[in-house]
Amino acid sequence: MAGTASPQSDALARFLAQASAARAVEIAALSPLRGGAIQENWAIDAHFTGGALAGEQRLVLRTAAPTGVPASLDRLQEFAVLKAAFSAGVTVPEPLFASGDAAVFGKPFFIMRRADGIAAAHRITRDRGLEPAFPAIAERLGCELARIHRMHPPRPDLAFLPAYEEVGPVQQIARFRAYLDRHRVPRPVLEWGIRWLETHLPPPVEPVLCHHDFRTGNYLLDGARLTGILDWEFAGWGDPHEDIGWFCCKGWRFARLDREAGGISDRMPFYCGYEREAGRAVDPQRVFFWEVLASVRWAVIALQQSDRYMIGGERNLDLALTGRRATECELEILMLLDPGGAPSDV
Amino acid sequence: MFDQPTGPSLLALARDVLLTDLLPLLPEEARLDARLVASSMAIAERESIASAKLVDDILTELETLYGQHLGNKTGEDEPLRRFAHDFRVGAFEGSPRDRRSREILWRLTIAKLRLANPRFLSANGFT
Description:
The complex is a heterodimer of chains A (346) and B (127).
Chain A: H1 7-20, E1 24-33, E2 39-49, E3 55-64, H2 75-87, E4 95-99, H3 102-105, E5 109-113, H4 121-126, H5 134-148, H6 164-167, H7 169-182, H8 188-199, E6 208-210, E7 219-222, E8 225-229, E9 236-238, H9 240-248, H10 267-278, H11 284-310, H12 317-322, H13 325-337
Antiparallel strand pairs in A: 1-2, 2-3, 3-5, 4-5, 6-9, 7-8
Chain B: H1 7-22, H2 28-66, H3 78-88, H4 98-116, H5 118-123
């Protein structure tokens, strides 16, 4: 739906007027944004008459897709995490309002400002014009991640997040296995990788707030300027190295597998930015553990995405094809964990 | 028994028509979906040619590993399920079958990627 009057945009305009104490809100455009694999994002161009947002506003409405993957927060919870991140000085689109009233948009949603820039990972990692700026961008991302990790439990505003004891590596391993037990095709490489994780658990750690999907594709660049960390639906308490391993794992390097920090630079600038802001050193051994776990986790998410077509019936070719990426993760698990390498005659 | 051109040949031709003739005529917002359709056709083409051989080859490897005939199991995935379970419980660890079992993992993974994403395979140094 692009453009103006519809029952949906009328209800949304009334909600925005009430939430911002405006006398009136006129929605000039309401259109879906491409790119959210799990959530739906809608661009809103609106004019506010009076109230806290008086004038022209460019906003985003974020709501749930018809089917999802387990482990994601609902939109009201994601809104609370986004508010916490905004307050902690993390570069995010400013969160504005949220509603659980299905009468407004058919399902719960929240509203945030629309930041400029692109998130398209293949485009970013292929952009030759950005190459001189990539180390600085990686350093800035390390700094942003350290700011996220300054948040610790307990937090009354984030009381809905499961305790770390429920989402740590042991519990993740149990969930991976439970998923594979239900999955239609046996995955021996994932089983081997999970077994390695089980037998190489790192010592316990004081948990921090983790983004849990901090990677290229989930931040906005306006030229070389970072304008927002996006997609907080998987946030939760965790080991800080979990986010570092996720950012660096091969599954998120896109067009540049050789650039180990998110496909944009080597690890050094990213680690430097993180260490400077966090005031503590990155532990490469812990990162390695979480990088192996990242490959297993991404494989399971990829399979769950294709389940949305196979089981959920969502007619989406992108989701259906994503399941094939699990095998790419399996190759990475073998490359990380098997020092003997592939047989010479393969 | 079947008419010519074969299913894989038709898929290859259809994909070429899609990418060469149709894609330039599509609006920008439809091109990503068209490329996904082309990718799906390429995977389907490669799998229709080679997937049966992959299954046979892996079954042969597993029979050698386990030293027994596995082909008459009720489900076609049963030998692979047993193999996966053995990794879960560490059955090959410290045994003479350890190296051989991992070689099968490599063979399986590389063979699957040759069908699903040969470009990713070559980007990782495999042919």
